[in-house]
Amino acid sequence: MRAQCVSSAAVAAAGQAADGGDGEQAADAAVAVLVARAVALRRAGQGGLLECFASVPDPRDRRGIRHSLATILGLCAAAVLTGCVLMVEVTAWVTAADEQVLTAMGCRRGRDGRLQPPCGDTIERVMAALGAQGLADGVGAYLAGQAGIEATPALIAGPALLPAIAVDGKAIRGAIGSDGLIPYLLAAATHGPASVVIAERLIGAKTNEVPEFAPLLRSLPVPVGGCVFTMDAAHTVRAHARLITEDLFAHYVMIVKQNQKGLFDKLNSLDWASVPISHHTIETGHGRREKRTIQVIDAPAGLGFPHAAQVFLVERYTTRTMRKRTKGSRKYKKVTVHTAVAVLGITSLSAREAAPEHLATYVRGHWSIENKIHWVRDVTFREDASQVKTAARPRIMVTLRNLAIGLIRQAGHTKIAATIRQIRNNPPLLLTILGLP
Fold this sequence. Notes:
Distance between the termini: 30 Å
Order of helices and strands: HHHHHHHHEEEHEHEHEEEEHHHHH
Number of helices: 16
Strand content: 15-25%
Low-confidence stretches: 1-21
Mean pLDDT: 85
Strand order of the largest sheet: 3-2-1-4-5-9-8-7-6
């Protein structure tokens, strides 16, 4: 666990102790809170879903609680799994939930012996007061534990494909922050068909993704030694390269563009024409044909980028058949459009650790966070059109959507929308995906 997995209440308590003049006690208190939070997140990742929700700090007064936070969050997660987008849809689904679901979630029985779900007002109050970052940490730890992410030993036998984590940001366009701006989240997600979000942080109003990169990676709920981090060109900075290699003992695959002009010019000036194509792939589908090639060489001396071992050039040639209407005519005709894109990159992986086909896989796999997480949230869950706009509720809904996508994929289902349609009228399937008896 990393030191950044600490609640705001713990930070405030440590700050008050420091203001009181007892720095040693403040340091001890902060360490104790960090250890407790680390243990809680570890248990969240290793236990079941309800144990994960039980690790989230409950904002309510302990007196008068009728439904546990784990029960409320579990029912809300189940509602999102059935396709509920609006908060009113979530509360309506919970109040009418099947008895089998209420039993599995641990709902209490009333005097008449019937299971009583939490009412809509209770859910609204909990969502308004709940700490969004605490929920995101717990859910990320749970999904990471289910994904089996762990430190990877050094490669000795030869190059191999290592576990990879993509870092990228997304705006919650349907929400409005307290400052009147659209909230923006920076997230870390695994590569591959079962891509899941394992950590996320809110980007402040007066900053951007770059300063939040290090806190996000330090807060990851799993050891990442030996893993590969991929990111877009905005994060190709020396500080990030040092953090990944020296602090996390991991590797990076970075894209180099004009925002790092000196580094870009050095790579662009290399004699790529004399470098043979090391690997290529051809894919067809959806009316297009795409050919990708990669050329790889050892990083030249004097590059000035921390721990750079190899540099590469990826080229993508696309042939797409489109229907186009000429100006002034109602008739369409098929036209063939050709495009070509070239991208430079740099990595800390040596030739002994990554072959060209592995580097090409990392570059391509980075977009899994876009098309398997962000795109699904926008299209299937209609996130940008959501009416959940204020306070912490938009972030909480984002976390529940990430959880729903992760649970469906980790259960072996690849089609999110089709699985949601099956879940709506099938409580046993819902409980199976939630991992509940």
